[in-house]
Design goal:
This protein is of the alpha/beta class and 425 residues long. It has helices at residues 6-16, 26-35, 53-66, 95-109, 116-131, 167-170, 174-181, 200-209, 250-263, 273-282, 306-317, 337-344, 365-376, 387-397, 410-422; strands at 44-48, 71-74, 86-88, 91-92, 135-139, 156-159, 190-193, 212-215, 221-224, 228-233, 236-242, 290-292, 297-300, 325-329, 350-354, 380-384, 403-407.
């Protein structure tokens, strides 16, 4: 084995390919073929979209688990530990299992350079093939058509909401981005769109390849209520469903898409109402409007594009608290910082912008300030060296009722989680 620790493997993978992101399936398909792994042999749900992928995966995992099925899930990025990306029955696999899978891939690839993400995707698929779960759920990392996850033919393809993000790779408009996401659809197999406004390109791709497309608002509808909600999708009728533990009206949208996708597999994975209810209440997703009570109250959300920031703004609008509302924001340099700020401009009395320039693709606090100042106007803006120092300062100066909202990237939220879990009560 080339390395003995997961950290060493990951450090090496980060520099193996000359580009951090290199879309295309040729290398992954070739190595997957060399590995000699048979078809996964179980139902596969692939999830693509701009926002809502993580929540949808969490719902699917929790509902299937509540129904008694063994699940295998692959997601990205992680918050605190790489192992979060590869889970069996809701639990991250251990370091040694991942290292062993990396070794198999390293031997099979020969001189083919794989990216960090491609290594991780192949490792997850190898581990899932060995585990033989009842169902596999795969979250697409970037786009869909050329993402490494798309080496697997999904039995059901779920596409969540579409927004502007990763334009350098996916295109500058929603139709182009939708076309890339629709690449996970397969001929003769169902696809589900759970967002509010579907780009025409998704419908066109489904028609072109002969995929059966089920669209929110057309083929299935939700009826929200103050304490429960209902889903109507032809013969599928789910009534008196509990509001998801995950916060926000958008989570009903995500949950509905998952229930329709799971119903497409009902002949292989039947799920009763009790399991649906239990799964909706059990689904958890760290870093998505995660509230930590105290003085101040901390709210952590990985919102890193304008669409996600709009959802965050809506959640904050309905969130209590009589004190000040303070933003702590750090973004990567390929994100629309001005768009994020515009979505949240009315939410905060002050903004603390942190420097992520020491992280891969991280944006400096000074550059972030230049991006958001024209949008935020006269609101107080402070640039800070790092997340931890800013959190310490805000904790020391907070008053009862104050709310500090940490957002902008997984890196920012991960640093805050580590600080909060290690901070003195």
């Amino acid at each position: 084995m080339r390395f003995d620790t997961l950290e060493a493997w990951l450090d090496w993978q980060s520099g193996l390919h000359p580009k951090a992101v290199q879309l295309g399936l040729e290398r992954v398909r070739e190595v997957w073929s060399r590995l000699g792994v048979p078809d996964l042999g179980v139902p596969v749900i692939s999830i693509a979209g701009t926002n809502g992928k993580g929540s949808s995966l969490a719902f699917a995992e929790a509902i299937l688990g509540a129904a008694g099925y063994h699940t295998a899930c692959y997601s990205s990025p992680h918050l605190l530990r790489y192992n979060e990306r590869i889970r069996l029955d809701g639990q991250p696999v251990d370091d040694w299992a991942i290292c062993a899978a990396f070794d198999r891939i390293d031997r099979a690839r020969g001189d083919l350079p794989l990216t960090y993400f491609e290594f991780g995707t192949l490792a997850a698929l190898c581990l899932f093939a060995e585990a033989r779960p009842d169902a596999v759920i795969l979250e697409v990392g970037l786009g869909g058509r050329l993402d490494a996850v798309n080496v697997i033919d999904a039995d059901v393809a779920l596409i969540t909401s579409i927004g502007l993000d990763h334009q350098d790779w996916l295109g500058d408009d929603l139709e182009s981005i939708g076309r890339e996401k629709a690449g996970i659809l397969r001929c003769g197999r169902p696809g589900v769109f759970s967002g509010c406004r579907m780009p025409r390109s998704i419908r066109d791709q489904a028609a072109r390849i002969g995929a059966r497309l089920l669209v929110a608002g057309e083929d299935f509808v939700t009826t929200p209520g103050s304490s429960a909600w209902a889903l109507s999708a032809g013969r599928l009728q789910r009534r008196a469903l509990p509001l998801p533990t995950l916060r926000g009206a958008v989570q009903i949208e995500n949950a509905a898409g998952v229930l329709v996708a799971l119903d497409c597999l009902s002949n292989r994975l039947p799920i009763d109402q009790q399991a649906v209810r239990a799964g909706l209440l059990a689904a958890q997703l760290p870093g998505r409007f995660e509230v930590r009570p105290g003085r101040p109250t901390w709210v952590l959300d990985v919102a890193h594009n304008p669409q996600a920031a709009q959802v965050l703004a809506g959640l904050l609008d309905s969130f209590g608290g009589a004190g000040r509302r303070i933003a702590l924001c750090g973004t990567l340099d390929d994100k629309d910082a001005a768009g994020i700020a515009a979505s949240l401009a009315e939410c905060f009395e002050a903004w603390h912008l942190v420097d992520l320039s020491g992280q891969p693709r991280g944006r400096s606090g000074r550059d972030l300030a230049e991006q958001v100042r024209p949008v935020l106007g006269d609101v107080r803006i402070e640039v800070a060296a790092d997340v931890e120092a800013t959190l310490h300062h805000l904790a020391a100066t907070a008053e009862t009722g104050d709310i500090v909202v940490v957002f902008g990237s997984f890196v920012t939220v991960a640093a805050a989680l580590k600080w909060l879990d290690g901070a003195d009560p």
